[in-house]
Write a structure and sequence with these properties.
Protein name: Molybdopterin-dependent oxidoreductase
Low-confidence stretches: none
Shape: globular
InterPro entries: Asp_de-COase-like_dom_sf (IPR009010), MoPterin_dinucl-bd_dom (IPR006657), Mopterin_OxRdtase (IPR006656), Mopterin_OxRdtase_4Fe-4S_dom (IPR006963), Mopterin_OxRdtase_prok_CS (IPR006655), Prok_Mopterin_Oxidored (IPR050612)
Pfam families: Molybdop_Fe4S4, Molybdopterin, Molydop_binding
CATH topology of the largest domain: Rossmann fold
CATH class of the largest domain: Alpha Beta
GO molecular function: iron-sulfur cluster binding; metal ion binding; molybdopterin cofactor binding; oxidoreductase activity
Bound molecules: ligand MGD, iron/sulfur cluster, molybdenum atom
Number of strands: 28
Strand content: 15-25%
Distance between the termini: 64 Å
Structural class: alpha/beta
Keywords: Iron, Iron-sulfur, Metal-binding, Molybdenum, Oxidoreductase
Helix content: 25-40%
Number of domains: 3
C-alpha cells in the first residue's frame, strides 16, 4: 500500500517541503509540497535524487575496514573498539588528531550537539570545516560589527524594490546564506511590482539572464566596486542611515578610511564604468527599500572579509539594514545567537603557518601541511565527517598525498570517495529517508521566520545508524579507551526540544510537530538595537582589522598593475551538489557539465575550438578538460565547476565515474587566502590554457 510522507529536502539551504510517496521501502515519487509555507510547492531536480540515494548500489550499508587495497565489512562495535584503541595509542605516542566537518553537517541538526563530544574525546586541537572554503568571512564581519558571528542579515527579497546580487547565482544554487526556496518566482514577483534585480558577476549567469542589469566584474576586484559605490553615495549626498544613525560606532572613522580612495581609479580596477557605478549608487540611495547581497564569489576571495564589511556598510549607508525590504535579522524558533558563544579570532594559532583560529577552527587550506609536516603536534589521526576535501579544498593533490601518510583515518560517509578512499575505516550513515530533519542552521537565515520538523520516512534498517549515533558512539569508545569519563549523550530530539524552549519564542518540539507542512512564524521584523550583541548595543562600523586591511593590503593591490593572462573562477549547476550527488542516475543525465568556459576572444589566439580538450595549468597543478567557448564569461576569465574528478584511485562511484570530469581544486592554490578569515581564495586563480595538442608538443 503506497503511503505519503511530508518532509523537508535536506540537500541544500532552500529547505523545500517535499511529499514523498513510498511503497514499502521503495520511493514511488517525490513532489513539492504546495502547503509548505516557505517553499510553496517549489522543488528542483535534485530532490528526486533522494530516491537514487536510497537505492544506490554504491552506497555503503555497513561499516568497512580497508586492508591493503580491499574493503572488508566489519561490525560496528568492532570498528569502534579498533578505532578507539588506535586513537589511544597514537595519542599516547604524542600524535595529534583532527576533524574535517564537511558541508552536509550544516544540513543535519542531530550531529551538531555530538561533535564537541568527539572533539573532546580525541583531544583534537585542530578543527577544520567547509566554513573556511565558504562563509567564514560573513561570520567574522558579523562578529566584529554586530557582536555575534551568527547575526546574519537576510535579504528581504519579498518586500524589496531593488536587489543587487554580487557573486551569487541563486538560480543555480537555490540561494546561500539565505534560505529562499523558489527564488525564481520571488525575483519575478519583485520585477512584477516594478522593482529591479542587478547582478554583478564575471559570468552572465542564469540569475544575470533574468536580471534587469548585469555588469561584468574582474574576479577579485569587488572591494573596488563596493568602495566606489559608497563614495558615489557620499558624493551625491545620499548617505542616509536613518534610524540606524543612533546605533553607529566608528562611522566617521570608516568614512575617513574610505575617502582616501578615488572613484575613477576604483572603477578602472574593477572594470565597471564610473558612470554605471554612480547610477547604481543613485538607485540604491533613492530611499526605497534595497539590498546588497554578496555570496561565494565575494566570500571565497582574497578580500573576502573586506567585501562583506563593505556590503554591510552599503546596507547601513542607505538605511536598509534592519529595514523591511532591506537586509533583516530573523526571530528564529531556535535562536543560535542566544544559545552559542559569539565567536573568536586568534585565541591560538596553527602549528605550521601560524594561522589564527577563527571561530575555533583553522583554515581548511592548512590541513595538508598540518598532516605532512613532521614535528611535535603533527596530525596522525584524521576524521572526516560528511566531507570530501580532496575535491573541495585548494590543492587537492597535496591533501591527497598527505592523507596517504596518516597513521589512522576514519571517514563517516556512505561512499568511497576521493577522500574516504584513504580511510582505514568508513562508517556509513543510514539512508537519507531514515533520518529526521530540522533546519537548525538554516531556518534562522530564511526569508520568513519558520520551523518545521520532519520525522524519518522509513523506519531504520536493522543494523544501521544515523550520523549522530556514529559520532556519539565513537566519542564514547574513544573516551573509554583512554580512561576518560564517558560523555553523556543527549538524544537529538531532546536537545532540539530544549533549544526550542530556551529561545524567546518558547516553542516546544510538539508545537512544531503539530504543523507537519511547517509552522509559519511570520515575516521578518526590525530587531535592532535589541538584537545586537556588542557590549554597548552599537554597530561597530570601523573594526581595526578591516581599516588596516583597507589601508595596507587593498591599497597595495590597487596600486599594483593588473596582471595579464587568464584567471579561473567557479560555477554551480542546478543538477550538481558540490562533490557528491554525481552518482544519481537522474541527475547525471544531460550534456557534460565539467567544461572550461572560455571567451571566444581568449580561445581564438590560443587556437582552441569549442569542445577541444585543453590543458589548464596553475601554480598548483594541471588538469585536462573540454573547452566550452562562450561569451557568457568575460574576456580574461575562465570558469570551471568544482566537485568533479572522480577518476582518482580507489573511488567507487560508478555513475559519477562515467562523467568523472577533472577537479578544479587541483588548480586552486593553498597560499591564496583571505588572511583575516583564513578563507580560501577560490576565485581568481591565475591559469594558462592551451589545447592538448600544443601542450603535448611543448613538452
Ligand atoms: N573550487 C571550488 N571549491 C569549492 C567550492 C567552490 O565554489 N569552488 N565551494 C566550496 C563550498 S561552498 C563547500 S560548502 C565545500 C563542500 O565540500 P565538502 O565539505 O567536501 O562537502 P561535499 O563536497 O558536499 O561532500 C560531502 C561528502 O559527504 C558525504 N555525505 C553526504 N551526505 C551525507 C550525510 O548525510 N552524512 C554523511 N556522513 N556523509 C554525507 C558525501 O558522500 C560526500 O563525500 O566545497 C568547497 N569547494
Ligand atoms: N545546484 C547546486 N546548488 C548548490 C550547491 C551546488 O553545488 N549545486 N552548493 C551549495 C553550497 S555549499 C553553496 S556555499 C552555495 C553557493 O551559492 P552561490 O554563491 O549562489 O554559488 P555560485 O553559483 O557558485 O555563485 C557564485 C557566483 O560568483 C561568481 N564569481 C566568481 N568570482 C567572482 C568575483 O570575483 N566577483 C564576483 N562578483 N562574482 C564572482 C561566479 O561566476 C558565480 O556566478 O550553493 C549551494 N547550492
Ligand atoms: S532547491 Fe532542490 S535541493 Fe534545494 S532544498 Fe529545494 S528541492 Fe532540495
Ligand atoms: Mo558551501
Amino acid at each position: 500500500m503506497p503511503t505519503t510522507h511530508l518532509r523537508t529536502c535536506h540537500l541544500c539551504e532552500a529547505n523545500c517541503g517535499i511529499i514523498v510517496t513510498v511503497d514499502g521501502r521503495s520511493v514511488l515519487s517525490i513532489r513539492g509540497d504546495s502547503d509548505d509555507p516557505l517553499s510553496r510547492g517549489h522543488i528542483c531536480p535534485k530532490a528526486t535524487a533522494i530516491a537514487d540515494l536510497e537505492s544506490d548500489p554504491d552506497r555503503l550499508r555497513t561499516p568497512v575496514k580497508r586492508v591493503g587495497g580491499a574493503w572488508h565489512p566489519i561490525a560496528w562495535d568492532t570498528a569502534f573498539a579498533e578505532i578507539a584503541a588506535r586513537v589511544a595509542a597514537i595519542r599516547a605516542a604524542g600524535g595529534e588528531t583532527a576533524i574535517y566537518a564537511g558541508n552536509p553537517n550544516a544540513h543535519n541538526y542531530s550531529i551538531a550537539p555530538q561533535l564537541p563530544l568527539l572533539r573532546k574525546a580525541l583531544g583534537a586541537k585542530a578543527m577544520f570545516s567547509a566554513s573556511s572554503v565558504d562563509q567564514v568571512p560573513h561570520q567574522l564581519v558579523q562578529l566584529w560589527m554586530y557582536g555575534h558571528n551568527a547575526l546574519f542579515p537576510i535579504p528581504d527579497i519579498d518586500r524589496t524594490r531593488h536587489m543587487v546580487i554580487i557573486g551569487g547565482n541563486p538560480l543555480a544554487s537555490n540561494g546561500s546564506v539565505w534560505t529562499v526556496p523558489d527564488v525564481r518566482t520571488r525575483i519575478a514577483a519583485l520585477q512584477a511590482r516594478g522593482g529591479r534585480l542587478t547582478v554583478i558577476d564575471p559570468r552572465r549567469t542564469e540569475t544575470a539572464a533574468v536580471a534587469g542589469a548585469h555588469h561584468f566584474i574582474r574576479p577579485g576586484s569587488d572591494p573596488a566596486l563596493l568602495i566606489a559605490l559608497l563614495l558615489a553615495l557620499d558624493e551625491a549626498g545620499l548617505v542616509a542611515p536613518g534610524r540606524l544613525a543612533a546605533m553607529l560606532a566608528g562611522w566617521d572613522a570608516a568614512w575617513a578610511a574610505l575617502r582616501r580612495f578615488d572613484i575613477t581609479r576604483l572603477a578602472a580596477a574593477c572594470g565597471i564604468d564610473a558612470a554605471v557605478i554612480r547610477d547604481l549608487a543613485a538607485q540604491l540611495g533613492d530611499g526605497s527599500p534595497a539590498i546588497v547581497y554578496g555570496r561565494i564569489g565575494v566570500s571565497t576571495a582574497a578580500f573576502g572579509t573586506l567585501n562583506h564589511w563593505l556590503i554591510n556598510l552599503l546596507n547601513i549607508a542607505t538605511g536598509n539594514l534592519d529595514r523591511i525590504g532591506g537586509a533583516m535579522f530573523s526571530t528564529p524558533a531556535v535562536d543560535i545567537v542566544g544559545q552559542t558563544g559569539s565567536g573568536s579570532r586568534g585565541r591560538f594559532h596553527s602549528r605550521v603557518s601560524g594561522h589564527p583560529e577563527v571561530l575555533g577552527e583553522f583554515p581548511a587550506v592548512a590541513m595538508a601541511e598540518e598532516i605532512a609536516t613532521p614535528g611535535a603536534g603533527q596530525i596522525k589521526a584524521f576524521f572526516t565527517i560528511a566531507g570530501n576535501p580532496v575535491l573541495s579544498v585548494p590543492d587537492g593533490n597535496a591533501l591527497d598525498a598527505a592523507l596517504a601518510t596518516l597513521d589512522l583515518m576514519v571517514s563517516i560517509d556512505m561512499y568511497v570517495t576521493a577522500t574516504s578512499a584513504h580511510a582505514d575505516y568508513i562508517l556509513p550513515p543510514c539512508g537519507p529517508l531514515e533520518k529526521d530533519h530540522y533546519p537548525l542552521f538554516l531556518a534562522p537565515i530564511a526569508v520568513r521566520n519558520f520551523a518545521k520538523y520532519s520525522p524519518p520516512t522509513f523506519p531504520p534498517t536493522p543494523g544501521s545508524k544515523s550520523d549522530w549515533e556514529i559520532v556519539a558512539e565513537l566519542a564514547r569508545a574513544i573516551a573509554g579507551a583512554q580512561g576518560q569519563p564517558l560523555p553523556n549523550i543527549v538524544p537529538p530530539r531532546d536537545s532540539l526540544d530544549r533549544m526550542l524552549r530556551n529561545a524567546p519564542r518558547g516553542l516546544t518540539l510538539a508545537d512544531v510537530e503539530a504543523h507537519p507542512h511547517g509552522l509559519d512564524l511570520g515575516a521578518l521584523e526590525p530587531r535592532l538595537p535589541d538584537r545586537l550583541r556588542t557590549p554597548d548595543k552599537t554597530i561597530a562600523c570601523a573594526p581595526a582589522e578591516l581599516i588596516a586591511d583597507l589601508a595596507a593590503r587593498f591599497a597595495d593591490w590597487l596600486s599594483a598593475p593588473p596582471a595579464d593572462g587568464l584567471v579561473l573562477i567557479g560555477r554551480r549547476h542546478v543538477r550538481n551538489n558540490n562533490s557528491w550527488l554525481g552518482n544519481s542516475h537522474r541527475l547525471a543525465k544531460g550534456p557534460p557539465r565539467c567544461t572550461l568556459m572560455i571567451h571566444p576572444g581568449d580561445a581564438a589566439p590560443r587556437d582552441i575550438a569549442d569542445g577541444d580538450r585543453v590543458v589548464v595549468r596553475s601554480g598548483a597543478g594541471t588538469v585536462e578538460v573540454a573547452a566550452e567557448i562562450t561569451d557568457s564569461v568575460m574576456p580574461g576569465v575562465v570558469s570551471m565547476p568544482h566537485g568533479f574528478g572522480h577518476h582518482r584511485p580507489g573511488v567507487r562511484l560508478a555513475v559519477a565515474q562515467a562523467h568523472p570530469g577533472a577537479s578544479v581544486n587541483d588548480l586552486t592554490e593553498r597560499h591564496r587566502i583571505d588572511p583575516l578569515s583564513g578563507n580560501a581564495a577560490l576565485v581568481g586563480t591565475p591559469v594558462d590554457v592551451a589545447p592538448v595538442r600544443s601542450a603535448v608538443a611543448a613538452e
